[in-house]
Structures are given as structure tokens and as C-alpha cells.
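Here we describe the complex-level prediction in full. Unlike the single-chain runs in Section 2.1, the two entities below were treated as one system.
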Amino acid sequence: MARFSFQILAEEGRARTGRILTPHGSIETPAYIPVATRGAVKSLSPLDLAGLSIQALITNAYHLHLHPGIDLIHHMGGLHRFMGWEKPLLIDSGGFQVLSLGLAKEKGGGKVSALSSEKGERKRVYGAKPGKSLIRVSEDGVEFISYRDGSRHCFTPEQVVQSGQDLGADIIMVLDECTSPFHNFEETQAAMERTHRWAERSLAKFPNPSSQGQALFGIVQGGAFQELRETSARFLAKHPFNGFAIGGFLGSSKREMIQVLNWTIPHLPRAKPRHFLGIGMVEDIFEMVAQGIDFFDCVAPTRLAATGTFLVKNKPHFRLRILNEAFKNDPRPIAEDCPCPTCRGHSRAFLRHLFLTKEPLAVHLAAVHNLYFMESLMAEIRRTVAQGKFESFKNNWLAEEK
Amino acid sequence: MARFSFQILAEEGRARTGRILTPHGSIETPAYIPVATRGAVKSLSPLDLAGLSIQALITNAYHLHLHPGIDLIHHMGGLHRFMGWEKPLLIDSGGFQVLSLGLAKEKGGGKVSALSSEKGERKRVYGAKPGKSLIRVSEDGVEFISYRDGSRHCFTPEQVVQSGQDLGADIIMVLDECTSPFHNFEETQAAMERTHRWAERSLAKFPNPSSQGQALFGIVQGGAFQELRETSARFLAKHPFNGFAIGGFLGSSKREMIQVLNWTIPHLPRAKPRHFLGIGMVEDIFEMVAQGIDFFDCVAPTRLAATGTFLVKNKPHFRLRILNEAFKNDPRPIAEDCPCPTCRGHSRAFLRHLFLTKEPLAVHLAAVHNLYFMESLMAEIRRTVAQGKFESFKNNWLAEEK
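The structure predicted for the assembly as a whole is:
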């Protein structure tokens, strides 16, 4: 079985295009990784995803642990088989969910919602009420109460690695402790240092005898503080991770997000792949790639689909809201030049009708378009980086967002 | 453009297999016609349906009139183009919806719900409250108030024919006045006689200069009264309809439903196709076909899918409820010998997980299986009728429901 590897094929400034090889096939980078939190992408089947040339999916250990349980999936032959997905799979640890549960205690559900929407995880804090603790973080790991049935659970760094290996995930993210804008420098530093100790404990468990060429990624923390991001990147870079993810609080604007990447990435080894956790609005992608990000996951394309928002080139924020009255009897497809099944088969008027009458097909057709949009944008980005034309491609897109 | 025609290819008793030709292609009979009330089958795209060899769809004039409006669809190039569906389309008039609205006044929403579930139209009586009239039926037609926005609307038999032709539907059902178990003999007779007068008015408008080889179907009424069903069938049989539908109240048991067919069908011309409106539980199909029904529509396969109920051969009522604890870690597909994409790709354990975590993909995968089940059952029925082996096939299936 192929082991994990990463090859850079071309570079333009800090941007690069390459190929990640995993036991379940390759990922051409830069790549968008759709989110299958509980083992399924919202409203799209593995067959749909294959038809859209999706290269890999990312699942979530926290959610799969709560249902149906890691052991059950393991006994069913692993996560690929359970999901019916044969291509590469990443698994996030749930560090972000842990943050949400923790903040629910300190700050109340509302604020967490507002914050967490930035990472696309709005609505995750089920039943959380201010002052009601759903979580306790200790040096050993994380104890939490299930939002499903109130049962108690525990995650340690070692268990997260073991779960990822048991599930057969190709890329396993270590357990980390996320911070938020509510955490000051000292709190963010303490969480980062614990994340570093957990990273070393994770490596000590990896690879284990059951490994099948899988990869373990360290996660850079440090919030929006330059000193901490640099420290975290330098610390992790010294360890034999197969790649690195950038997580946690990234500031409160696009400019600050770019700054965080700019502080972090120069301290990560050039030869290893870099994943950006939970970020990928269209307007962000160009700067991320320019800073040297290789792949990223984001629920925005499917979540926007659920509200009737289609991703397109020449609109503000790259969005077309189909509920707009202007599309009532518009016979054109969402995008004239888009060859996706939704645009080949259906008019804006029909799609608007489906959304207004709450037909389940509406969300499916929107998700098909949005994932096609993302995959073909990323393919163009890979091509332009290879040709040394990414900078002008980026400027062209950002200028045309009107 | 091909005009409407019907050819019987083989008969076994009253059962027959044949071919309906329409301007948009043929329908091999006996056939199941999935329901696309508002222009879309629940959670399945036209591409999905084509992959499942679905031959035709039935839409609903009442619902399409309320949203997005007949004129809008007409100006968008007709219903086929609007829906992205190239094969035959039937359109029901909404007589049943009219019944539901009327009963909502007389008997209250609850009872209507219980009744209407038999035709698979549960939940259609939006906001109906006992004593609040949403409808007025007169000799001219039906006036009703939109459940969407309270606006007033009117349907006449002539308008229903015109709408069907404007939309380009291949088979148009006339406007009828449905009755219910709450109507006595005299009320049922009066509604039947009005349905007959409306049928003649419909024929007088058909075909019109805009016709494109479409077909108009008369609807037999008469409730569960033998004299009325016979009268209605004989009356309609004398008129030049292209085919006939059987609608309205069919008694309160499977036995009574068969009796209604047995009273009706011998009085309909052998050479014209017969549609059964809104009926098609698996256990009903065999008797319907044995009585000489050529095609039928029913929402049950998609509605059952939405609740996690899969159609299978060897289970009570031909149903497998995936939420059952027994399937928690069952690695088998829904049906071992089923080649549908859901059974080829996914285990019972995964499907149960998707339903329990309310993943939208769950309903889609169940609908794929249930429609595949229906289409392959009908294909087997066509084969066995052609071979003169339908009776034993029927007995085998009904005996194996255990």
C-alpha cells in the first residue's frame, strides 16, 4: 500500500502546486476538501461526488465518536468502506467542537454561534446554555457531555490518533486546544503550549502497529498573536509530522487572517503540505493559495447551497441568491458557461421555484453546482500556478467580483 | 410529432402488458409513475430518475398553478423544459386537492389527513381548520383560496384542459369532483354527474389549435357504490377520451378497492389505457394489474423513503424500517440481490446512521432504492404478463410477504 508523500510540482512566489499521495490515491494541490462531518456530504452521494471530480473528504472524529461510534465503524471495515468512499479521507479531531462546547459555558451559546459561523460550524452547540458546562479540559485530555444523550465522553491525544488509525483515515489531525477572541495572550499561550504537549504525545503513539501508511498532521495554534504563531510553527516544524494544519482564531478580518498565515507559513518546512482548517470562502482562497496553503476544508459551499446561494464569478462575494425576485422568470442557467449538471439541466426560474416550494431537490442541485464551482476553480488555480500565471489569475478574479 | 396511442402486446386474464406512445416517448405498461407534484420528485434529480429507468412522471396542475404559475412555465418553454425532463409527463387536475380543501371545511383537518393519507396526500391541507372554508364548488368550476398567500383562484374544466395544453403535458387529466367516505349515495351521485358534465366540457375544448398530440383522460367517479361506478364507467366509455383514470373514494379496505376496480374496468373499452390515481402500495400493485390497470401513480415510495422505510421483498408489507436497532451494525445492503446504487454502495448500518443523524443524504439514498425497487418490480410484472406467468408471479410475491 502506498505510503503518504508530498511532491511540489511548481511554485510561483509562495504559492505552489503539487501532489499528495495517500494509501487511497492522490490529491492534486491546491485542493478544496468538502466536509463530510458525520460521513456524508450534505445532500450529495459518493457517486455524485465522484461525478464532480472531488478528490478527498474530511470527517470529524468528535461527531463520529458520538454517532455511530468509532468501534462500530472499525468493525464495519473502516471509514472508507462505511461511507462508500474510496478516495482519500482526512479526519479532524474535534478540537474546534471542543472550543465551541467550552465557550458555551463561558460566554453563552449566542456568541459562540456568531464566532463559530466563521469556521462554518454554526449550530454545533446543541442545547448549550450560558453557565452550563458541557466540557472540561485537563492536561490529560478533554471530557465532554454528549449533546445527543447527555452521556459522558473523554478524548485524549492518544485516543484521537488511535481512532484515526482504527478508522483508516489517510490524514489524521492531532487533538488541539482551540482558542477564541475571548482568550487573552496568556490564555492563548497556555492553550498553545498544551497543544504542543498533546502534539508530542500524539507522535509518540504514531505510527502504531496497525498503521497503513497514514499521515499525522500537527496543528499550529497561537490565535491572532504574531509571537505565538511563530513559536507554534517553529515548535511543530521540528517534529516529524507528515504535514501541518493551521487552526484556531485567525483574527477578525480577512486582512488579519492573511497576516496570521504570513507569520506562520515561513516557519513551516517547505517540503511538507499545509492544510487550512475550516476556511474557504471564495474571496479567501486566492490569498490562502498565495500564502502557500496546499489544501483546505470548508462547509460554506454546501451550507450556502442549503440557503439558495450559488457560487458564481461576477457577483459580489461570488454569490447569487436565487430567492431574488429578479430570477422569477429568468430562463438562463446559474452561470452561462458552467457545464455542471445543474446548469446544463435547469434555469434560474426553476431553481428559484424549487427553493420557494422547499423541494428537497433544490438543495441537492445547488450543492452540485457549488462543489463543481469549487473543484473547477481549484483546477484552474493549479493550472495557473504551474504556468506561473497565478498572480494575474488572482487579480483578475478579485477585480471581477462586482 | 408522434401522437398519443396505446398498443396491447399481451394479455393474461384481465392483466395486460402494452405500450403507450406519447409525443415525448413511450411508456411500457403496466407502469409505476413517480409523483413530481411541483415539478420535482422528492430528493431525486432528472438525472437520478433517468439512471433508475423511470419512464414518466406525473405533476399536479393545482400545485403548479399556485406556484410558480401556469403562465410562467408556459413562457419558459413548457413543463418538460422547465423541469429538465424529456420523457412523458402526466398532469393531474387537482380534483383530489379540491376534495381535501372541501373536507377541511366540513370535517376538520384531522379527518382529512387520515383519509387523504390513503392517496398519499397527507399534509396537503395546509392551515385548514374545521369550519373555515377554503373552497366553493359550483357548476362552473372550483373557487379556492391559496394555502400559500390567501389569494383567490378559480379552476374550470376548460381552464384545466387549457393549462395542460399550455404546459405541454402528454397526458392531461380532466377536472373532477372527488368524494369521500363522508359523502352518502346522493351526494356521491351528484358529484359524479357534475364530473360527467365537466368531462364533456373538457372534451369540447380538446384538442385545441395548440395541441401537440397530447391525450385527454376522463376520470371515473362514483365512490364505493357499484351502481355509480358502473354508470360512470359506461358514461365515460361512450366519449372519445384517449384513456381513463379511476379516482375518488375506493372503499375502506383492499378488498373494497379491488371490488371498485372489478365493477369499473369491464365497462371501459379494452383498447384504451387505464390509470389508477394515487394508489400503489406494493401489496396493491398485483391486484390492480390483475384487474387490468395499465399505469398508476403514488407518492408512497418517496414518502416512505423520507421516514427511513425501504421497500423489500420478504418483509411484512414489503417494508424494512432502517431505524430498527437490529440494523445498528448490520454490514449487509438493504437487499442482498439489489443492484441499485444504494445497495451496491452502502450497508444498513451506514443508512441507519444517516437517518439517525438526520443527514439529507439519507432520504436521497432511500428514494433511489425505493424507485429502483418499483421500476424493477414493474419490469418483472411486464415480463411475466407477456409470458402468461403473471398469476403465479403474483401468488409467489404475496405468499413471500412474511
